[in-house]
Structure formats: structure tokens, C-alpha cells
Amino acid sequence: MSGNRAPRQKPCHHCKRRSASAPPGISMIHYEKSWLYRHCSSVQQGDRQAQKAGQLFSGLLAMNVVFLGSAFISSMIFNHEAITLADVWVLLSILKVLCVCWIIYYLLGTRRRLHAVVYRDSHAGPIWIRGSVLLFGSLSILLNVFQISYSAILIECKSGVDIVFPSIEIIFICAQAFFLWHHSKDCIQVQHNLTRCGLMLTIATNLLLWLSAVTNDTMHMEIESQLREVEQRFTGNQTSSCTCPNKTICKVFQKGYILLYPFNTEYCLVCCSMLYVIWKNVGRRLSHPHIPHIKPNFRLQGVVFGPLLGATSVIIGICVFMIYQIQATGSVPNVQAFVMYYSYYIVLLPVMSVVAVIGTVIHALEKKELDTLKNPTRSLDVILLMGAALGQIGMCYFSIVAIVATNARDLLNSLILSYSVLLIFQNITQNIFIIDGLHRQPVTAAAEARHTGRTGQRGSASELPEEAETTASSRRERTQTSPDKVEEVKEERPQEGPSQRRVSVLELGQEIRKVSLSYIHNYSHLSWKRRVLREISFFLVLCNIILWVMPTFGAHPVFENGLEKSFYGYSTWFAIVNFGLPLSVFYRMHSVGGLVEIYATA
Fold first, then answer.
1. Rg (CA), the chain
2. Where does the pLDDT of residue 349 fall: very low under 50, low under 70, confident under 90, or very high at 90 and above?
3. Which 8-state DSSP code applies to residue 370?
4. Better-predicted residue by pLDDT, 373 or 265
């Protein structure tokens, strides 16, 4: 009766005695509703309770670490004399060293145990998010190199922590990026509690690094103090501040640090999302471990208008961004630069909202099954989209309150009000479209083949095989020429320069024609719903990319226009922007990943 035992479950002695006394022809399924079956299944219930207890304990550990670090950072902000930035860096360095030690132990100890990784979650760690970890991690390493170089030049004014802290962070970034690239799909089956605690400690460390990054403005303060020092020198006043021996090199390091600073915050948020999925997969047993998840390939087929409109939006956005950077970031900001910037958004955001609503309606018209399987990655996608959108939506509501309370009637304030309202509506409609699309089952290859078989028997589908046959026959004719003719062709080839070029141009034209016909063939065989969904997804991908580029590389009109800053005060509005702006940038990047997946599965 050993073959009738339930897998993945160690039976108790009562179960063994009952199965041994059962007749050989009776299956254990007959005893499912008996007290004995319920008693034997208590082992699985105990595993679930242990899993919940382990998740609760690791979550409490992360919560206490985050509260401790937040208290340190808040104390530094409110009383920078008692708690300095060096004290915060010491605490974060200790946490990073502990995280690196756990990652090394996981790689060399936990994962090498017998039956440690039996299951791997195919949905976790898609290539776009792992690639973003490598990209943002590399830029964060470059950021720390700039910080180390800048502190080494000013070693007389800087402490040793200014060099040690970024050095430890480089080691932490490298270890974490390697761990996430290779082991983001692991469903570890051994040492559950230790793994959960290590993952939660790493998540808490990344959250504290993000919180420290969005509240730290020391580099801007140093640049402003250096400008004040130059002014005091012109007036004849002496200062005791530290001066840089090489102004050019110091300015390069300062500008590079400010330019790369947002990527460090993005790196922390992306790592938190991936680590959370791994934490949810600890001890998880998939129902079909040997059936791989078939992911649709990303092919540039079925789109014509989406790339054209999206590329137009990107080109115009780059021009607006460059003009804004030149005119609005000077000593005297130009109001026309703000008017142009907000006008671009006011034109683009309604278009994005309308196409997102159209895509949601098409999702409702489609007869696709919903993906109802338990999937931590899908649940996290929804949480991140909704949570990251709160940063941009929160800043918009603060701007609306400031404009309405001051009763401003000029053109710029009217544009800011329209921009805030449209941005809230665009975030909501895009979230609905992405979340609805991610929970749809992708089109299977069999259904696509049936659809192409019904619609591809006439028209251009019948023309393509004939062209393939003609090209194949022409190739056979060319290869079946006699050796004498080949020698004659070789002898005549140097004498036919212009004609040979004409032949090559004709062959190139034929290849372009065949590629174009193939693209039109694939485009025509898609249903109109799939074509519209692909056009919408591609257009929104390009729009979100340009809306990610502009604030990431320094376009911050919400802080530079002066309206909200004068209403709420410098410190309060600086904290609001530093909290909401990184979330809005992360929202755009995460939306691009979801839209690419919708395009591939449409």
C-alpha cells in the first residue's frame, strides 16, 4: 500500500496501521471524510501554521528595523546636532554588512542543501526587472565612486565615514544584484525562518536606504554654501569653509552625483519588490513544477500607429525637456518655460487617458479567461502600481489645494491646476488598464493558429508561398549553373561594375518588399481587438518612457515654479516632493514593464 500514500506528507502511525489493514483493492480516497484522514492531514495544516508564524515573525523583525532606522533619520532631520548624518550612515552600514553576510550564507549554505530548490516560480523575476536591477545597480555604483572621489579630494574636511560608507554600499549593491539576478525565482524549501528573516532584513535595509536618500540634501547644501563663499570673497569677507583644490574636478563630481542620485532611489525600490516576491515564495510548492510557464515572445508585429504616435510624443518631449532645462534652471527662471512644459503634459495626458479607457473597454469585450491562480508576482504588481501612483496623486492634490486656497487666476496657475487634475485621471485610468490586462490569460498558440488558419487562406497569405517558391526556384537555378558558366561570370564580373550595383539594389528592394509583405500579412491576420490593444500598449510604453526620463534627469517644475513652495514653506514642500517624486518615477518605470507584458500577451 506504499503507492497509495499521499505525497509530500509523512503519515502518522495511525495512518500506517489503517493502511496496512485495508484491503489491497481499496484506495485511500474512500477515507477522505473520515476522522482518520482529517487527523493525518493535520500535518499539512501544521505546515501552513508554521509558514504563517514564520512570515509574521520576519515581518515584525523588518517592522522594528524600519522603525529604528526611521527614528534615526527623523532625529537627524529635526536635531542634526545630536544625531548627525555620520550616525545614520553607521547604522545603515551595520545593516548592510549583516545583509551581505546572510546573502553569502544563502549562496554557500542554504541553497546547496539537499532538495533546497525543487520549485522555481516562472513568473518571478522577469528579464526587464532584472535588467533594471543591473542598470540601476551599475549607476548606483558609479554614484558611490563619485562620492568617494569627491570625499578623497576634500579629505581634510571630510570624515572617514564619508569614504567607508559608499565603499560598503558598493559591496552591498554587487552582492544583492548577483543574488537577485540568479535566484529571484527560487522557492526555497529548507531553513524557512532563517531565509524569511534574511529577506526581510534586506528589504528593511533597502527601505531605509531609500528613506535616507530622499531626505538627504547635503550635496545641494554644499553647492549653495560654495556659491555663498564665492560671493563673500567678492565682498571681502573671509570664510573658514573647506575649499576644493581643483574646481573643475569637484564640479564634475558634484554634477555627476546629482545626475545619478535618482537612480539609487529607483534601485532600492526595485530590489524591495523582487525581495518581497522571493519572501512570498519561501516554502511554496507549485502545483505543476515540471511544466514550464510559456512566455510569449516580444515581436514588433501588429503595430503601426502606436510607434508613430509614441515616437512623436518622445521627440517633442525631448525638445521640451531640453528647452526647459536651459530656460527654467537659470538664476532667473523663465515663465514661458513652465508654460511650455505644462502645456505639453496637458496635451499628452488626455490622449493617454482616452486610449487607456479604450483598452479597458476592449478587455471587457474580449472573451479571455481570467488568471485566477495564486501568484505573488501578480499581487505585487497591483500593490506597486497602486502604491507608487499615490506619490504623484498626493503631490497633485497638494498643488490643487494650494492653487484653490490662494485663488490664483493667472495663466501658469491655471495650467498647473489642469495638469494636476489630468495627471490624477491618467494615473487612475492607466492603472485600471494595466491591472485588467495583467490578469487576462495570454492568447495560446493553438488559438492563434486556428485564427490564422481561418483568415489566412486567401489574399496575401496565398501570395507569400508563391513568392517563396519563386525565390527558391531562382536560387536553385543559380546554384545549378555549370562550372564553365561560373568561370565566365567570374571573368565578366570586374567588367560589370554599374550593372552589378544595379542588381544588388534590385535584390535589396526585393528583400525589403518581402519583409514588408510579411509584416502586412502578420498585421492583417490579427483580430481588430488584438491590433488595437497592441497599438495602445506600444503607445503608452513610449509615453511612459518620456514621462520617466523628464523628472529623472532633472525636470522638477513642482519644486521650481515657486507656487507650492511659497504656500507650504520650503521644508514642508521639500519633504513632500522628495517623498512623492521618487514614487512617481518608479510608477512610470513599473508601468512600462506591465504594458510590455500586455503587448506581448495581446
1. 31
2. very high
3. B
4. 265
Q: How many CB atoms lie within 10 A of CB 342?
A: 22
- Kind and range of the H or E element at 186? strand 186-188
Distances (CA, A) of 41 to 3, 82, 251, 287: 17, 57, 68, 18
- What whole-number distance in Å separates Cα of residue 42 and Cα of residue 46? 6
- What pLDDT sits at residue 168? 94
How far apart CA 280 and CA 276 sit, in angstroms, is 6
In whole angstroms, give the CA distance from residue 506 to residue 511: 9
H or E segment to which residue 306 belongs: helix 305-328
**CA atoms of 399 and 581, how far apart (whole Å):** 13
Whole-structure pTM value = 0.69
Pairwise CA distance, residues 571 & 563, whole Å = 14
- Sign (positive or negative) of CA dihedral 395, 582, 423, 434: negative
- Distance, C-alpha 477 to centroid of its chain: 53
Task: Supply the pLDDT for residue 528.
Answer: 67
Give pLDDT, residue 41.
44
The residue count of the chain comes to 602
Q: What is the pLDDT of residues 520-543, one digit of tens each?
A: 555 555 576 778 888 888 899 999
Residue 64's Cβ-side half-sphere holds a number of Cα atoms within 13 Å equal to 6
Query: What are the backbone dihedrals phi and psi of residue 120, each rounded to the nearest 5 degrees, phi first?
Result: -135, 130
**247-261: b or e for each residue (b if 16 or more CB lie within 10 Å)?**
eeebeebbebbebbb
Q: What is the rounded average pLDDT for all residues in the chain?
A: 75
Angle made by CA atoms 308, 312, 316, in degrees to the nearest 5? 175
Give the Cα separation of 587 and 581 in Å (integer). 10
